[in-house]
Specification:
DNA polymerase, domain 1, TIM Barrel, 2 domains, about 15% strand, alpha/beta, two-stranded antiparallel ribbon, binds S-adenosyl-L-homocysteine, 12 helices, binds iron/sulfur cluster, globular
């Protein structure tokens, strides 16, 4: 065990404070709710509530679905295939609102980060904020989406883990992040580009929060995102990353069917207990068994194993050897993530030379180009740096982080 880990045990982490004020349940809905995030069945029920006859539900739901999720319109008035009277009726009771954008930052590498405001649902308490990040690449555009404000799990290297969980996001707020990105990038179906191709092509549930501790909302949202008559991002292009909530891994396969990423980060239980404390509940052997059993895992559809490179902690060649040995028999991709430091962290990113050695070993064992290129560091858009308003960085911390981002 490293000296730093002993020090950390002595110093209580911010998350060790009692969670008595934590509101896990979704916020109290606004007077006029948004229709974003409802399933077709729920939408039909809402139409029933305002007196639309059942015989019209199927057609109306289809119309709404198209306008909301293919065209991305932001008010009912733009839904021109729906009668004026019906549009007025809908507008009287509902909205198609997504989370408000509080700030937008564009990195010099094209990465964009949006800070979104979410109602707290508690009278007098100010709005929560989460971030979502768009990463353009040559052959794809990936949106990194949040599932919770904060996180209950205290992974010791993750900045989100230092924040108490404030609340789960609703399905509408999760789908809303994709809609905001499409709004801001002008990326809806009527977008006119030479190729007509879309900018947001892939989704990763790798923002703030543990998606498998907000299972129902994440499932409902991802099924909407993957719906071929709507947003239409196929399940293959959606990746859910979990720190290892074993019972919900099988449910992810059965009820969502998206690609899976596992935040492994250590190959021995003793170390993983420290880096990802959830390991004490679901140790490595159980986690890997859930991966072996994951439906649809094949060589064409591999499970991604994320491994954050922490200097002197988990980056030795022995770790690399054990990693390859552990993953034997699982259709796997390995994704080495250079550690993104944050002010006050006890970890450092592994030296580049060591990352290369580790990566070379993994490459020679049959895993291709496994190092994740850091993106959007100048706007603090990288993994583990997303923040909520409740735990905003001080100006000094922000400056320190920016300096770290520039010098890496
Ligand atoms: N809660 C989920 C998904 C969000 S985190 C999970 O843990 O998988 C997305 C990825 O970023 C995870 O692999 C996480 O371990 C990693 N991560 C968190 N903090 C990081 C940091 N400071 N540097 C690099 N990667 C980090
Ligand atoms: Fe939560 Fe994931 Fe961060 Fe762990 S790495 S604290 S599970 S967001």
């Amino acid at each position: 065990m490293t000296q730093t880990s002993t020090e950390a045990k002595a110093a209580p982490r911010a998350n060790d404070v009692p969670l008595e004020k934590v509101a896990l349940e979704a916020y109290v809905p606004l007077a006029k709710p948004s229709l974003i995030g409802l399933s077709r069945v729920e939408l039909a029920a809402k139409l029933g509530d305002i007196g639309v006859p059942a015989s019209q539900h199927k057609m109306r739901v289809q119309q709404l679905w198209h306008w909301m999720y293919v065209r991305g319109v932001q008010d009912f008035d733009a839904m021109t295939t729906i009668s004026k009277e019906m549009r007025a009726e809908l507008a009287q009771h509902f909205t198609v609102a997504r989370p408000d954008v509080v700030a937008e930052q564009i990195s010099n590498d094209g990465t964009r980060k949006w800070l979104l405001s979410l109602p707290s649902g508690v009278a007098g308490e100010k709005a929560h904020e989460v971030e979502c990040v768009y990463i353009p690449e040559t052959d794809r555009g990936t949106l990194c989406v949040s599932s919770q404000v904060g996180c209950t799990l205290n992974c010791s290297f993750c900045h989100t883990g230092t924040q108490r969980l404030v609340r789960n996001l609703t399905a509408g707020e999760i789908v809303g992040q994709i809609m905001v990105a499409r709004d801001r990038l002008n990326d809806w179906a009527d977008r006119t580009t030479p190729t007509g191709s879309r900018l947001v092509t892939n989704i990763v549930m790798m923002g703030m929060g543990e998606p498998l501790y907000n299972f129902d909302a994440v499932r409902d949202a991802l099924l909407i995102v993957a719906d071929g008559d709507g947003i239409g991002i196929s399940k293959r292009r959606i990746t859910l990353s979990t720190s290892g909530v074993v019972p919900n891994i099988a449910r992810t396969g059965a009820e969502i069917g998206v690609s899976l990423a596992i935040s492994l980060h250590a190959v021995r239980d003793e170390l993983r207990d420290e880096l990802v404390p959830l390991n004490r509940k679901y140790p490595i052997a159980q986690l890997l068994q859930a991966c072996r059993d994951y439906p649809g895992a094949s060589n064409a559809r591999r499970i991604t194993f994320e491994y954050v490179m922490l200097k002197g902690v988990n980056d030795s060649l022995d770790d690399a050897k054990l990693l390859v040995k552990l993953l034997k028999g699982i259709p796997a991709k390995i994704n080495l993530i250079p550690f993104n430091p944050w002010p006050g962290t006890r970890y450092e990113c592994s030296d580049w030379e060591q990352i290369e050695k580790f990566s070379e070993y993994v490459f020679n064992a049959g895993y291709s180009s496994p190092v994740r290129t850091p993106r959007g560091r100048d706007i603090l858009a990288a993994c583990g740096q997303l923040k909520s308003e409740t735990e905003k960085l001080s100006a000094r911390e922000r400056q320190a982080l920016r300096a770290m981002a520039m010098t890496d």
